[in-house]
Amino acid sequence: MKEFTVNGMVGQRLEKDGVALTIADIKAKPGTQFVLSQRTELEAINALQETFTVSERSKESGMLELTMTGDDPQLITRILNSIANNYLQQNIARQAAQDSQSLEFLQRQLPEVRSELDQAEEKLNVYRQQRDSVDLNLEAKAVLEQIVNVDNQLNELTFREAEISQLYKKDHPTYRALLEKRQTLEQERKRLNKRVSAMPSTQQEVLRLSRDVEAGRAVYLQLLNRQQELSISKSSAIGNVRIIDPAVTQPQPVKPKKALNVVLGFILGLFISVGAVLARAMLRRGVEAPEQLEEHGISVYATIPMSEWLDKRTRLRKKNLFSNQQRHRTKNIPFLAVDNPADSAVEAVRCATNQSAFRYDGDGE
After folding, report:
1. Phi, psi of 65 (to 5 degrees)
2. Using the 8-state DSSP alphabet, how is residue 37 labeled?
3. Could you report the per-residue pLDDT of 227-254, keeping only the tens digit for each?
4. Half-sphere exposure of 286 toward its Cβ, with a 13 Å CA cutoff?
5. 3-state secondary structure of 167
6. Are residues 341 and 357 in contact, defined by beta-carbon separation less than 8 angstroms?
7. Locate the Tyrosine-protein kinase G-rich domain: which residues (predicted)?
8. Residues in the chain, pLDDT under 70
9. Are 269 and 315 in contact (CB under 8 A)?
10. What digits encode the pLDDT tens for the residues 96-105?
11. Rounded to whole angstroms, what are the CA distances from 78 to 34, 48, 252, 253?
12. Residue 132: exposure state from Cβ atoms within 10 A (0-12, 13-18, ≥19)
């Protein structure tokens, strides 16, 4: 890598050999040296992902919690606040773009809806003129009013679903509530249509044409209101995201947890020690019973037990060998047959000697 030296001032942009650098502020003593390192975008993203996590505070609450770990509390705070602010700005920009697209769509649809409304009104007027100004009775007017009300609610749900589908999935409670309400309204519309089918044909036709006019007028008014709302929202986009609390650091380090590490170290050491003892015992297993030799065809004439007295004396002597007083002494070495002739091990040796001599004499005869 090519090295070069350049002088500059704080707050001024430096450019040399394809490198651009701006130091906004610096707090250090004269002569302090800093090492700058360059990372690729992917390296920076991977490094951030190792310490940065996003989790939902509670299920389906819509509240996100950002956490980050590191050794510089001030840097962590700046990074988290920067991430939250960038997300907020992106949300506002996306909301403004969506409002702009929706507004353009409404501006294209309004002339078509107005034209359909005019055609529906003309058809109703023509039919009434042909039937000598046929009007609806009280029952038909009540049914028409209910049908128009249901249609208006369904149209509002259609607009609402277009917005919700951009924020939630269909299994979200808000989305499920909208779908359930739509299903209820559709069932109500079917019930009203059955009542219309039972009316005279003339009343049915007038009601159908009147329904088209009222529904078209309601849709047109809804589109006009929506156009005004989007115009206002576009000019003052605030997004649908809020930063509830700024980033704060814990007063005490969250890692490492010394008490937990001590406990885990103790448990791990205990397991390792037990495992080492068991492994050593398995690797150093010898003959534990005379039957093991007899299974391999080896005759056993006698068994000599281990002397507990000699074992204690031997361990005591080994311990004393490390002291300054007994380090170079070689006397007082315990001899079992002399020091403790009544020991069970000595008796077993005598019995084994007598049996061996008896078998030898018997074989000689």
Report:
1. -120, 125
2. -
3. 888 888 777 767 778 888 888 887 777 6
4. 1
5. coil
6. no
7. 202-282
8. 1-4, 60, 132-136, 237, 254-258, 284-288, 293-294, 300-302, 304, 306, 317-340, 342, 345, 352, 354-365
9. no
10. 888 888 888 8
11. 20, 13, 18, 18
12. exposed
pLDDT of residue 364: 46
- Count of C-beta atoms within a 10 Å radius of residue 214: 20
Instruction: Report the pLDDT value the prediction gives residue 17, as an integer from 0 to 100.
Output: 76
Per the structure block, which two tokens stand in for 307?
Answer: 């002397």
What is the DSSP secondary-structure string of 189-213? Answer: HHHHHHHHHTS-HHHHHHHHHHHHH
Task: With CA atoms as reference, report the closest residue to 303 among 313, 291, 317.
Answer: 291
Q: Using alpha carbons only, how large is the chain's radius of gyration in Å?
A: 47
208 residue type, one letter: R
- Label residues 305-344 b or e (16+ Cβ within 10 Å = b): eebeebeebeeeeeeeeeeeeeeeeeeeeeeeeeebeebe
Tokens of 19: 């490198």
DSSP state of 62: -
